[in-house]
Design goal:
Elements lengths: L1 E4 L2 E9 L11 E9 L8 H15 L4 E7 L3 H9 L3 E7 L5 E6 L1
Parallel strand pairs: 3-4
Antiparallel strand pairs: 1-2, 2-3, 4-6, 5-6
Length: 104
């Protein structure tokens, strides 16, 4: 999904099936990323894209949304926490430690 303002791309959201094999793709989708142009952070664009993801889950009758946010990305951690996401206790072993979240 894309967000535009006066014909200019200002944000994107990507989503798809869950990366983890133990999460049922028939009932869940993963929010891969939300990116908003840095010069316009804090204007509600990320929140609007997030709302579209939640709306997609509901419209598709999916019961779970998952995402992964790097532990060192405090901005992303705070954004998702404000939108009701809670850590689910899973950590993927990678160079930079990630925390996964779940939201119904």
């Amino acid at each position: 999904m894309c967000a535009d303002r006066e014909g200019e791309l200002v944000g994107i959201l990507s989503m798809g099936p869950p990366h983890e094999a133990d999460i049922d793709a028939a009932t869940a989708r993963q929010l891969y990323q939300i990116h908003v142009r840095p010069g316009i952070w804090g204007q509600g664009i990320g929140s609007a894209l997030h709302a579209e993801f939640v709306r997609f889950l509901r419209d598709a009758s999916l019961v779970t949304g998952v995402l992964e946010a790097w532990e060192r990305n405090s901005r992303a951690q705070a954004f998702y926490a404000r939108h009701g996401w809670k850590p689910d206790g899973h950590h993927r072993p990678v160079q930079a430690t990630g925390t996964t979240f779940a939201c119904v």
